[in-house]
Amino acid sequence: MKYPVIDNVVAPEGGLEVLSRQEIAKLLDRSQSGLHDVFRSCALAVLSSGDYMDDGKALIEAYPDFDVRVVHRERGIKLELINAPAVAFVDGEMILGIREHLFAALRDIVFTSAELASREHSGQHDSVATTDLVFQILRNAGVMQRTLAPNLVVCWGGHSISRTEYEYTKRVGYQMGLRQLDICTGCGPGAMKGPMKGAAIGHAKQRITSGRYLGFSEPGIIAAEAPNPIVNNLVILPDIEKRLEAFVRTGHAIVVFPGGVGTAEEILYLLGILLHPDNRELHLPVIFTGPAESAAYFVQIDEFIGATLGPAAKALYKVVIDDPAQVARLARDGIQRVRSYRKLHSDAYYFNWRLKIEQEFQQPFSPTHAAMRSLDLHRSQPEHQLAANLRRAFSGVVAGNVKLQGICEIEKHGLFELHGERELMRRMDALLSAFVEQGRMKLPGTRYEPCYRIVH
Question: Nearest CA to 334 among 404, 259, 282?
């Protein structure tokens, strides 16, 4: 399908305005060590946010001639866009919110590249250094609001959900907005957009003009979850692990809506961290919720968690079906307890420093066929370690579904294979099969071809 395109030159809006010559050179560098390709892919996703694709390879194929170049001017920089998606423009002018997102992507990619290079040179690779990098990226993006009381609800859920489920996410967001709660999501469509849309209405009714709608993404997933227009602070972390850490360290409550394998990955990451013995006393309200038609989905998730991670994991969250006001009340009341706990222990409101996150949850997982095949998927290990390995398995399926690198890996070498304990693999197979049957693996109206094979 041929999409309309446009050429344009845009100046910064709400983001980076000046770059050094070395930074510009890296952005123009098309080699593996350069930044051109990663910025081009992120820029394309931002500019095509109205096209509703969830396939990184398909997006690039839809705009094969798109390119972006940094133009250095005496008073700053501009971006020259060649064959850019026309959906990002109105009467030849780029939509303001998209322009903000475009330069936010530039800001984060340049800053993160410099920080990673500096840490590589100094040999900083431990858990403390990783958390510090996440903090630095968020602070550079203006996320840290030292004077604000805790009020940020992280909302997770799928981009491929039914209309009823989407409307429910808006109703929950509306109730949270009425209670002066801000929203943070993965920034994409579906369950990532609905809570923001609802909260915006709730904020408007309460005459709140400073509502925050944070969107956290990463280069590998942004094509599948291009920023929705309500996001007013976009942050691009370098990989999925740092993106997940950003969520759990900045959020004061977490609400999980129906989703697919990506949402399951997020749940396993969160539970794995909260199951760590050092985190048993921390306060972080976690609520699973959806409309009445989604009740069976949460039964499946709850059963899988109980069978794999045990009753201690099931005790870490509450399930609320078809009651948006109750979800908002639980989030608000839980956040009050978070505030009291942080105040008692002199911990920052804007970043959860006390949360223990070990390197097995921080190290980037590259979903190659060998890596997927060698995952330790047995219940003989501690629950938080099993959660880490299950999270990697689901992360690999996400990559094979929507990420350019994962899709190319599948096309080249065939399906990913997952091996492990027979009963555990049977339950994983049943859960993933349910996601397929419910249409949670791809956008509605598209046919899903599995990228994995479970051996049991």
Answer: 282
CA-to-CA distance for 415 and 454, rounded, in angstroms?
10
Kind and range of the H or E run holding 67:
strand 67-73
Instruction: Give the domain range for residue 377.
Output: 359-455
The answer to whether residues 443 and 159 touch, using CB atoms and an 8 Å cutoff, is yes
Report the C-alpha gap between 455 and 429 in whole angstroms.
9
Is residue 179 domain-shared with residue 235, that is, in the same domain?
yes
Determine the Cα–Cα distance for residues 230 and 194; give it in Å rounded to an integer: 10
pTM, entire model? 0.91
Contact status, residue 313 vs residue 271, Cβ threshold 8 Å: yes
* pLDDT one-digit tens code per residue, 367-394: 999 999 999 999 999 999 999 999 999 9
Q: Tell me, yes or no, whether 330 and 188 share the same domain.
A: yes
CB atoms closer than 10 angstroms to residue 437: 10
Instruction: Return d(Cα 334, Cα 329) in angstroms, integer.
Output: 8
Which residue, 213, 379, 204, 201, is CA-closest to 307?
379
Based on the structure, what is the number of domains in the chain? 3
